[in-house]
Specification:
- The structure is a single chain.
- By secondary structure, the chain is mainly beta.
- The chain has 2 helices and 10 strands; from the N terminus they run H-E-H-E-E-E-E-E-E-E-E-E.
- The strands form 3 sheets. The protein has a 6-stranded antiparallel β-sheet with strand order 1-2-3-6-7-8, with no helix packed on it.
- Strand 6 and strand 7 form a beta hairpin.
- It starts with a helix and ends with a strand.
Length: 187
């Protein structure tokens, strides 16, 4: 009888010992963030102030400038970039939208970008759950669209993305260093 009692106690102690050895990773230098359209949707929803349905959400990691020259050096012109840091940036549409002349179905996609000095090419790709742009596959592209670079006087230390309402839907505004680009999304 004593053996039957002590066996569960020993198992519980062993399980607690294993839990105690779990180590959490350190804080990432490029923290993950997300933006919604409509902007601030989750907070608006819980406050019963949402006037539009959720249309899009983008999840991205935010690299820092850290005194580096970003475009042309850290990110070479003309090469595919994950549009952020760490995992490739993902966008989810909660209803059908249009980018350029291409109709996009409701769903989750990866965003890549090719920066140039005067424009950026945004790439919507159907491959998801990938890290960086190392396994980027051009055959999985759904749409590519160009947008002019708008030079800013004040440099952004952290990479940022936000949706802004437009007359025809929203713009995905992307900024870092002294570059800002607007990609229109129609809905």
């Amino acid at each position: 009888m004593k053996k039957i009692f002590f066996l569960p106690v020993i198992v519980c102690c062993f399980c607690n010992l294993l839990k105690a050895q779990t180590k959490f990773p350190p804080l990432d230098k490029s923290p993950m963030d997300m933006s919604y359209y409509p902007s601030g949707y989750p907070v608006l929803k819980i406050q019963d102030k949402a006037t539009e349905p959720l249309t899009a959400r983008v999840i991205f990691s935010r690299p820092q400038k850290n005194g580096r020259t970003v475009f042309g050096e850290l990110l070479p012109f003309g090469q595919v970039w994950r549009l952020g840091a760490n995992e490739a940036t993902e966008i989810e549409f909660y209803k059908p939208v249009r980018m350029g002349n291409t109709k996009i179905k409701k769903g989750r996609y990866t965003l890549y970008c090719i920066p140039y000095q005067d424009k950026w090419t945004l790439i919507l790709n159907k491959e998801t759950d990938t890290w960086g742009s190392f396994k980027y596959d051009v055959t999985k592209d759904i749409v590519r669209m160009d947008a002019p670079v708008q030079k800013q006087n004040d440099a952004l230390e952290f990479f940022a993305m936000v949706f802004e309402k437009s007359a025809t839907g929203a713009n995905l505004v992307v900024g870092w260093d002294n570059n800002m680009v607007n990609f229109p999304i129609f809905f």
